[in-house]
Amino acid sequence: MATWNDVRRIALALPGTGERPSRGSAMWWVKDKSFAWERPLRGTDREALGDAAPDGPILAVRVADEGAKAALLAEDGEVFFTVPHFDGYPAILVLLERIGVAELKELIVEAWLLRAPKRLAGEYLDRP
Asked: Which Pfam families does the UniProt entry name for this protein (predicted)?
């Protein structure tokens, strides 16, 4: 089970990353581009999900595209989900209490690589 401390530790270990509040929630950025953020469910989300609306901490992370989002949803619907607000948007919602720390790290690093400047991402990937 992952926690906000895990998210923070993983995200802030990536080069050029900062944490800022956005709408009262934590958001992680690289060079002014967000790649992960705290995303509590809103009233319209709960209405859309009905009885399937999950409880607990929810992280949103960028993904490459709708295909990547669909693959994650198909891979593990107990961990990953989406809401209508994210239709057509390359991001997935993650139930922190259901994801392992290693899988969380992979997800956050992939999101960071999508948003980081090419030089910074290249340096990160080239490190030993």
From this structure: YjbR
